[in-house]
């Protein structure tokens, strides 16, 4: 049976995005929402820091082949859970790379639905281990807390769920396609889905501050965890996607 969402093949393979940064598309996961199991494609971002140390953002479902491909790029030094939803495979990655530091959003130890290894809390300022290459900003919301990252050498903004941009042509379920369009999370006008927007009603000032900082970084491209990334016109896409809060 064909998947409901056409994957971004090839899966489990690092795809060069710019110097020292790759994306890895993983298999779709089933996300429970309103009594339904909804298919979400997954995407990991890999940054190679000085000294061939690797920084893995939102690690996807692992396999021996994926482990080997990642190891070919360098030494896994950091495993990042960038928001309160993207953390599930941390234990498996940490079992393979026990010397890697785990960093996650505040409060994940209370909300995670599976036991996690001990981790450091992501702060407003970047950790010394990656500060030479990456900036970051925290966003607190009523539904999802997220940390956005900016890879300075490639001028790449790395987001998770603050923008979702599903391509309708890749969705084979008419119902799922209509739901995503109603939520406002489809290309070419992808953005935070409506439920996430509503959860920021009491946190708009902080989100607006974070978005303005993202704009000040002047990224050239934006990596998203779900859907088509923005490989050009990044500032225009950000202003469009966040117009609901700006």
Structure write-up:
The strands form 2 sheets. Strands 1-2-3-4-5-6-7 form a 7-stranded mixed sheet, covered by helices on one side. A 4-stranded mixed sheet has the order 8-9-10-11, with helices on one face. It has helices spanning 64-71, 90-96, 108-111, 174-183, 194-199, 204-217, 234-241; strands at 15-18, 21-33, 36-49, 53-57, 75-81, 101-104, 120-121, 134-139, 146-151, 156-158, 221-223. The chain has one domain (15-241): Ribonuclease Z/Hydroxyacylglutathione hydrolase-like (Metallo-beta-lactamase, Chain A, 4-Layer Sandwich). It is built from 7 helices and 11 strands. 23% of the residues lie in helices and 27% in strands. The protein has 246 residues and is of the alpha/beta class.
Write a concise synopsis of the structure shown.
By secondary structure, the chain is α/β, with parallel strands linked by helices. It is 23% helix and 27% strand.
Key structural traits:
four-stranded mixed sheet, 246 residues, Metallo-beta-lactamase, Chain A, single chain, seven-stranded mixed sheet, 23% helix, alpha/beta, globular
């Amino acid at each position: 049976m064909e998947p409901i969402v056409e994957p971004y093949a090839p899966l489990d393979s690092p795809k060069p995005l710019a110097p020292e940064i790759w994306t890895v598309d993983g298999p779709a996961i089933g996300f429970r929402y309103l009594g339904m199991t909804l298919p979400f494609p997954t995407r990991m971002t890999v940054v190679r820091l000085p000294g061939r140390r690797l920084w893995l953002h939102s690690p996807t479902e692992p396999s021996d082949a994926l482990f080997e491909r990642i190891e070919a790029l360098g030494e896994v030094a950091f495993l990042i859970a960038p928001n309160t939803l993207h953390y599930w495979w941390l234990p498996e990655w940490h079992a393979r790379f026990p010397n890697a530091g785990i960093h996650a959003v505040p409060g994940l130890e209370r909300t995670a639905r599976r036991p996690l290894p001990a981790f450091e809390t992501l702060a407003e300022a970047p950790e010394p281990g990656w500060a030479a290459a990456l900036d970051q900003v925290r966003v607190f919301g009523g539904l999802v807390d997220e940390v956005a990252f900016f890879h300075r050498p490639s001028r790449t903004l790395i987001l998770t769920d603050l923008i979702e941009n599903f391509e309708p042509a890749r969705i084979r379920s008419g119902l799922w396609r209509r739901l995503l369009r109603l939520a406002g999370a489809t290309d070419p006008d992808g953005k935070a889905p409506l439920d996430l927007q509503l959860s920021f009603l009491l946190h708009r000032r902080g989100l607006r501050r974070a978005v303005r900082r993202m704009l000040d970084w002047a990224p050239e491209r934006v990596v998203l965890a779900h859907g088509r990334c923005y490989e050009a016109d990044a500032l225009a896409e950000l202003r469009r996607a966040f117009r609901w809060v700006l």
